[in-house]
Design a protein that fits this description.
Layout: E1 2-4, E2 15-16, E3 28-29, E4 32-33, H1 35-47, E5 54-65, E6 70-79, H2 81-86, E7 94-97, H3 102-109, H4 116-125
Antiparallel strand pairs: 1-2, 1-7, 3-4, 5-6
């Protein structure tokens, strides 16, 4: 989980699943979206973790954001614990990070400000 900084334009100081971000036009090839490559870029940029530590990517949900007119892809990442230990956490987007097992996420977020997309993912997961 990442707590967004005060400097971001949307949902400052709210918690969300990190990494998070949009698909760059660089990862659109014809009708295909190379979301894994974008995810690896976001992981490196926002969390400071090398993609080699990701052992599995499992997409589980698409969410249409009516307000921003975008389609979000939600994916579950399995990460080698060494990757979590080696992450640099140097990002302008986040001021705090928490690594949590899936069964502790809902309790951790209780009473906290949450990005709407993260709430949508949580409603599916729990």
């Amino acid at each position: 989980m990442g707590k967004r900084s005060e400097q971001v334009t949307q949902f400052p100081l709210a918690w969300e699943f990190a990494p998070s971000g949009g698909i760059s036009i660089d990862y659109l090839t014809g009708e295909n979206v190379e979301y894994e490559k974008q995810l690896f870029d976001e992981l490196t940029h926002e969390v400071g973790m090398a993609w080699e530590f990701v052992t599995e990517i499992k997409p589980f949900m698409l969410v249409w954001d009516k307000q921003d007119q975008i389609l979000d892809i939600c994916a579950h990442l399995k990460v080698d614990p060494l990757g979590m230990a080696s992450a640099s956490y140097q990002s302008d987007e986040y001021i705090a990070y928490e690594w949590l097992p899936k069964d502790q996420i809902a309790e951790f977020l209780q009473g906290k400000k949450i990005v709407p997309m993260t709430s949508a993912c949580l409603s599916y997961l729990f």
